[in-house]
Here is the input.
Amino acid sequence: MTEARPAKPTLEQLRAICQPPEVRSRRNAEHWTAELYLRHISIYLTAILVRTRISANGVTGLMILSGWCMSLALLIPGIWGPLLAVVLSQLQLYFDCSDGEVARWRGTQSPKGIFIDMVGHHTTEALIPIALGYRVFRELSANPGTLEQAWPTLFMSACLAVLLVLNRSQSLMVHAARGMAGLGKLPDTAEARAVSNTSLIGKARRLARFLPFHRLLHAVELSLLILACSIISAILGEPGLGEKWMIWILLPATVLVNLGHFLSSMASSRLK
Here is the structure.
């Protein structure tokens, strides 16, 4: 049983329960902006939410809704759609932080909440390239000079959606495989994911730290890339051009990221 906690907690009380060191030190569960600004601001949103009757899973629902609305925003022509998508991506981040904080404060952490959270992230990252592909398809098909590129680009965006979900799912596949083999849960630390530094895979992982392209494959970073590409398209006066090249470049790059992710998992001690 969770001990009775004040209905109107102070920020210090919330930080002690909702943002303990073991949460803020998680290597993969925390977005890279968490220590930069995210957790510093999310606690204020949590302070509002715990004063309401909304559940932690309800907050997760708001996170999912924000993510899905990002994709819908991309259907707005010009730079305003991508700009709105960036705003919604930040809102999604805050709800993503706050749902766990609300659950820790109320002592309502559950497998169901984790499952819903995963569904939200996977569907968001699948819908973004699909919406982007349709955005580009609409622009290319409206111009006779680029009509022949419209359908291939739409198909590539669908392939990109599959690869983004596969990349995110590979980490979960490792945990599922360990569970089915009767092995314990891995801690979210660098040591638990270590690969021999003398191996070819280990050397490749060290190089990847200097060019962390895989970090661009998440919703927040994708929204920023799309905004940058839409600005380029607007400057050049060719709607959809920058976004088209983004899809064409991301697709083969994401194939390589997935391959590297797979080889890294196979070479680590996680599956042994």
Observations:
- Residues 70 and 85 are 4 Å apart (CA to CA).
- The longest helix spans residues 147-180.
- DSSP finds ten helices and no strands in the chain.
